[in-house]
User: What shape does this take?
Amino acid sequence: MSNSKEIMAKNIKYYMDKKSISRQKLSDDLNIKYTTLATWLQAESYPRINSIEKMADYFGIDKSDLVEEHKDNKPDNTAVTWTDLGMPYGGVMPKELKETYADLAHSYFKRHPEYLNKDENKNDEK
Assistant: This one.
């Protein structure tokens, strides 16, 4: 049986992976020190209740989803596959390739912020 720090670390990592959230983004978005988040993820310390509430709200989950051990914390297998991309030999896209695509998109929108949320901006103009 895992201790509460290990359970919390596993659950935070699970939801970060599920939402493709980096440590830096999570710490920035929740105004939590990066080093504090790192100690939670390494199961060295346990977050206070207000931080647990912030994370639960951020991920759109119940606090219990972070605190309690879950047997079904398997990676989400609904990811884009090679077949989805028209690559008939199948298989799940490697994490490194997903990260490469995310890096490319990040760089593109950094250079072209006018295309970010383009559809939302059109709705704002109406």
